[in-house]
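Sample intake sheet
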Amino acid sequence: MALKRPESMDECVYFTRRSVDSGKVMAWVFREKCPECKKALMGKPRDEKTGDVKIRAKEYVCPECGYRVDKKEYEEGLLCNIAYTCPKCKHEGETQVPFKRRTFKGVPAIVFECESCNEKIGITKKMKEAKKKGKK
């Protein structure tokens, strides 16, 4: 299965490229067209003054007709496209899974299986490192 790769970040709700143990993962989720007018791609609302996207918004909006949908409801219907190299068997493959994070080794992650060895691979959210408390 040859997955369509994004040509621009404007097409994506989510994109990441990272190494997982000794393997590699590239994952992306395409934006979908508005379910009401079917003309424009849904996206997060923009600030009226600056025109910047409100990245912490809890909803997606159609720029054409103004239709609004809750972030959780919208993202649950999307598919995550994944191109990977398995860290266990080094198999290179592509797959699609629902864009839904589950707990994987105690961390929220998009989880999928290698089509060759069935090893579970998780794409975790990037976590900020905890600041070390040290004595002066």
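Comment: The chain has a mean pLDDT of 86. The longest helix spans residues 71-76.
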